[in-house]
Amino acid sequence: MTAKKEPAGLSLRLVAASRLRAVLSGDNFVALGANDIADSRDRATANRLITMALRRHGQINFIMHALLDKGLPGKSGSFEAVLRLSLAQLVYLPDLGAHSALFLAVEALKRDKKAQHLTGLMNAVLRRAQANSAKYWSLSDDLLIPETFGDTWVDAYGEAAIPAFTDALIAGAPLDLTLKDNDPDLIAALGAVPLMDDSVRVETRDRPVEGLPGYAEGRWWVQDAASALPARLMGLEKGARVLDLCAAPGGKTAQLIKAGYQVTALDADAKRMERLKINLTRLDYEAETVTADAATFAPESGFDGVLLDAPCSATGTFRRHPEVIWHRMASDIAGRVSVQRALLINAFRCLNQGGVLLYCVCSLEPEEGEAQVEWALQHLPDLKLLPIGPDEIGGDLAGAVSPDGLLRTHPGMAPGRQPGGMDGFFVARFGRH
User: Fold this and answer.
1) Alpha-carbon distance 151 to 132, whole Å?
2) Would you tell me which CATH number, out of the four given (3.40.50.150, 3.60.20.30, 3.40.640.10, 3.30.1600.10), belongs to the domain 221-432?
């Protein structure tokens, strides 16, 4: 007897629901790869559904509240993840078809013993959503930013910046690369546009990163334009010994090597350090690598420069990871602030007199940026602020430098006057006297 064939599109829906469910439980989103879904078109559709559900998370929250009179049912397995994917399709991805959204949602629940009793509820909710899709499409973009951050960001960046934040959230992040050499032929082959210094942007591509020109030859590495700024500010002579703390996956390490420094790259995560080593091998770059705790690492001799890219809330990365702004709470940020201070103390200990310390975080939160500078200057003797000059960043981003010489980028900024925004990054430069 021939086995009954699964409905078209069901397999990718089940895989997408599983990945989204993990993210809703607190995991960071990692795009589905060939090992998850072999067919490239199906994989692209599944990733598109997940990312749309995550980018529109706040608006989908509103829709679910309006449609579920009694709220989400408890102990309901994959119900929430399947519902969010289906609402994303119905309201924000109409080109994928309304019928498949309803049909595949019900079929997906039938495969889940903890949710199969809710197929009737799913069908009713989605039919109501379909009937009101035009109304839901016009929901305010203010819903996209959780209350946890809304007021803080208005205070820090001004009310006019918030629409740019939501635009960046919906659009997602283009692919930024740092080049080993500024080769116009390579830039043309990549279909890239120059941003600043050795950063370029690839707006669209028809192949995975590993298939792009120059990857196999180690002629560039993936690095957001904002992430590429800190290492350029070290300002030491070639041959200086520089410690890169919390270094993996190695983008800043590669920049420091390219600048001519003798680099020691340190990270506590052994798996991430293996990835750093692989990346450096592809680039034909060499660095001393150390797997250790950055808060307790005690080198035999000090360094001329230390770059500390500290663990943080990562709210500045929401174009790539929209889930972070829904996962983070005030208590999470407070915990990270404490870790950052411990790392700053040890970074200072590792620094020679006359050396340069760069502190950076991919966070939009003042507690992890400006407030940490105040703390460091009060608690670390002989540490002085070395103001960053607007001319060091370039004309397009000169406004990212504060009067005190602190650098702060955000997703509403346009490096090289190109669309697509950039990560939120904070950078402060210190000297030890």
Assistant:
1) 30
2) 3.40.50.150
* 3-state SS, residue 79: helix
Q: What share of the chain is helix, strand, coil (3-state, %, to 5)?
A: 50, 15, 35
The tokens describing 363, both together, are 């966070």
- Dihedral sign computed on CA atoms, order 364, 29, 177, 279: positive
Tell me the pLDDT tens digit for each residue of 89-135: 999 999 999 999 999 999 999 999 999 999 999 999 999 999 988 88
- Separation of alpha carbons 127 and 94, rounded Å: 14
Domain positions in the chain are 10-139, 221-432
What does the block give as tokens for 74?
């408890």
Is 299 in contact with 355 (CB distance < 8 Å)? no
Q: Please tell me whether 246 is known to bind a ligand.
A: yes
State the angle between helix axes of 40-55 and 10-24 in degrees (0 to 180), rounded to the nearest 10.
40
How many angstroms separate the CA atoms of 178 and 222, rounded?
Answer: 6
Residue 377 vs residues 289, 367, 415: alpha-carbon distances, Å: 30, 15, 30
pLDDT band at 1 (very low <50, low <70, confident <90, very high): very low
Q: Is 251 annotated as a binding residue?
A: yes
Which of the residues are catalytic? Answer: 362
Tokens of 164: 């740019």
| Fold equal for 10-139 and 221-432 | no
- 8 A C-beta contact, residue 287 and residue 253: yes
Band of residue 148 on the pLDDT scale cut at 50, 70, 90: confident
DSSP for 142-160 reads GGGS-HHHHHHHHHHH-TT
Fold assignment, 10-139? N-utilizing Substance Protein B Homolog; Chain A (1.10.940)
**Cα separation, 16 vs 100, whole angstroms:** 15
3-state secondary structure of 93: coil
Which run of H or E residues covers position 352? strand 351-361
250 annotated to a ligand binding site: yes
Is 247 annotated among the ligand-binding residues?
Answer: yes
| Contact between 35 and 19 (Cβ < 8 Å) | no
Residue 394: how many other CB atoms lie within 10 Å? 16
> Cα separation of 396 and 162, whole Å?
20
Per the CB < 8 A criterion, the answer to whether 305 and 232 are in contact is: no
DSSP symbol at 397: G
